[in-house]
Each structure stands twice: as C-alpha cells, then as structure tokens.
Amino acid sequence: MEDSVLMILPFSLQRILRNLPDEIDAKLEEIRIRENRPLEVVYRGAYRFLTGQGRPVVQPSLAYRPTREDCVKLLELLTDHSVYSFEEQMRSGYITVQGGHRIGLAGRTAVENGKVKIFKEISGFNVRIAREVRGAGDAVLPYLLDLPSLQLHHTLIVSPPQQGKTTLVRDLARLISYGDLQLSSGGRMAGRKVGIVDERSEIAACIKGVPRFDLGPRTDVLDGCPKAEGMMMMVRSLSPEVIVADEIGRPEDAEAIREALHAGVRLIATAHGTGLEDLSRRPILRELIRERIFSRYVVLGGKFGAGTLEAVYDGMGRRLTADLCAVPAGGEPPC
Amino acid sequence: MSRRPQQIRRLIQALQRLETEISYGFTHLPDALDIIARQTAEPLAGIFREMAAGLAVMSGHSVKEVWQSAVIGGWKKTSMKDAEKEILLQIGFTLGLTGREDQVKHLRLGIRQLQAEEELAREEQQRYEKMWKSLGLLAGALVVILIY
After folding, report:
1. Contact B63/A87, CB-based, under 8 Å?
2. Is this model's pTM higher than 0.90 or not?
3. So what's the ipTM on this one?
4. Does a structural domain hold residue B144?
5. Homologous superfamily of A141-314
C-alpha cells in the first residue's frame, strides 16, 4: 500500500491495512471507514470486510469496527491537523489529501440558509485511491486528433463516477504536453502548452502547488481554483493551447468554456453521465451539445471493467469506434 | 525577574502570528508552528520547534499530545509561571480541530487572558523594582550612619 495512503491513517488502521493481501492491494479502489461499523475495502467491483488482523472476509460480523477514537484521529491526520484549512472542501463533502486521494465524508451536517455550513460529526470516510495509469490515454488520443491539421478536437469525456475519467484525462494531459507522438501518417506531434484547472486537486494532486503526478513538461496547474474563474485566469495569463477541466456542469462552467474557445484554446473536459443520451437530458450540457461545442465525445463505462472505453463519437453523435469493441485503458483492443 | 513580562509579550505575539497564519494563510498547522518557531526568540522558539517536529508527517500523534508534551517539557527553560502555562495548554485542546471562526475565537481568548497576566506580571515587576530601590536607599543610608 502506498505511503501516501498509510500516512493519513491512525496506527490502529495502518496496522490492519499493511496486512492487506497483494492481490487486493494492487486493485484497491476504496477503503471505507465507518464508526462502529465493519471496516470495508472495495476493489475492481468486489468488496470484502477486514478483520483486526487484516484478513479479508465476506461476513461483516467478523470485521474490525473502527472506534470513535479511530475516526477522530483519522480526521486530524487527513486534515494535517488543520481542519480550518479544508472548510471549503468539507462543505462539498470531501477532503483531497496529498497523493490526490479524495476522501468522501459522511455524518451529521449543520445547515445554514439551506446550505451545508459545516460537518458537526463525521462518522464515515470513503478513501478513494488515486492512481496514475500511464498509457491510459494511448488508445484514446488518436481519435481526438484532427489528422491533417494535428489540431485537438474539443473533447468531452463522459462516464459514471469511479469509471476512470480523471485517470484518463490526467494521462491525456501528459501525452499532449510531451507530444512526441509517432503518427500513423509518419509525422510527429509537437508538445502543446497545457493548462489544467484542478478545482478538486484530483488531476494533478498538487502538494504546495507542485503536481505529484507527471503531467508533462509544458503543463501549468491552477490547484483548488474554481473552474470558471480558473479557465479565465489561464486564458488571460498562461497562454494555454489546451485547457483541461474536470467535471463541468454548472452554468458558469458553460460560460467560461465559450469564452475560452473564443480565445482559440482547445478544450478537454469531463462530465458525469452514462452516455450521450444521459447528457442531453441535462440543461447546461444539453446546450453545449446543441451548440456543437464538442467535436469528440469519449464514453467510459464499467461494462467491461472500470475505466473501459465504450465508444468515441464525433460532434454529430456518429460512432467512431467499432461496435462492441471495448478497449481496456492502456491495453490492447480485443477486436 | 524582568524576563517574565517580556516572555509573556513574546508568547502573545507568537499566538497572534499563529492566528494570522490560520485565518488568512490557511497555513497547515505543522508549517505554521515551524514559521513561528523561526520568528520567535529562545526559549519559546524551542517549544514551537518541538511542536512542529511532533506533528511531522507519519508521526501519528495528535495536536493535543504534542502541544502538551512540548509546553510541559520546555517550560522550565522559560521564566514564566503556571498561570501562563495553563492558558497555553488550554489552547492546545482545540487547535487544528475546528473551523476558522472557532480557531480564531479560541486563540483570541487565550491572547486576552495572557494580556491580563502580562499586566499583572509588569505590576509585580514594578513593585519589586520599587522595593529594591528603597532597600538600596536604606542600605546606603545604613552605610553612611555606620561610617559616622
């Protein structure tokens, strides 16, 4: 298990998780810590509970139950002893820690004027493990390039939560920034200036402003910056050729996107959804689709395993990848 | 004797800097304590340095534990008394565990209490100085009388 995950856990839980069998550790997606309830791990679609010795079991009755003290200590370690520094994130229900891991929070909230003010009691944590998968973008990037001009299509990556949007977009940023791609036409693509607006600190996992993941040599990151404002800031002063933004969907995001495109920037964005039809049911995204802002849609899904490429569509909704051809991220196409 | 009021003043200043780091800089506590240690004179600097080290990544200790151990351990090197120590220990109970508003409230309370102690300490110091002056005068008078 990675140090960046272990170091946010209190000793009692560290001890248990160090004993996690390698097969689970390698595919680990979530660690679920709930006060007085069985300790759970989720990996590649399966789940197990862990005993006090770290043994994975199916029966919850045999599992270790994190105590209140475990949870209090955990919150302190997650926030680096500085809860005040994470208030904004916590209001949105999560904390992103060093290493890019996002910890979802559950418990009792205090509400003011109909909005969440703070968490009064945090009794559940969902530790989502972030992984860098170099090569996740290899199979996808060729579809996103307009071959004669070598221009990047404005791309929207769509998937339900947990299906690899962020991992894919991270690798695409890296590939585009390095460039140096050997093209089937025989040419080489030059590296582009990439700007990432990392509102939730998940794409780059910056520590004190410096990305923890390899995003390429020509990449700038605005860490923890609201998307709409961030895109504008980037266009004004960082002269990006490509902007990457995660999880668009708010009215401000759409406005900022239109502005950025006027400035001649190419855009790669992600959105929650199960596919094009699902997107077109949502007001803001529906507008963007109708305006033909995007000329490429990449749909990821869990049908063949997390983060699998289901299809790539062009701006008119025409499918560009062969039917029923699932390309595992970073792997060989099976058909 | 004159060091106590001066050290209380320095402690107040350190806590005010901590308040600024927390409420304006959102600086993480371990870093904030490190910054303060570097901007404060000994022996206080040593106490803050120990706190920062105790909270270093992977140490797994809570702020409460580390704060207490550093304050109690380093107090002998200072000229301050129990009253100030208690106020400082009290701050360690909630530091880093709540939101900004609450943190600032607790720090300001501690600072106000320390300012009251500083007042008392200065008055005490003045009384002692007066006493020594008078004693010196009397001793001088005694010497003059003895000579004659």
Report:
1. no
2. no
3. 0.84
4. no
5. P-loop containing nucleotide triphosphate hydrolases (3.40.50.300)
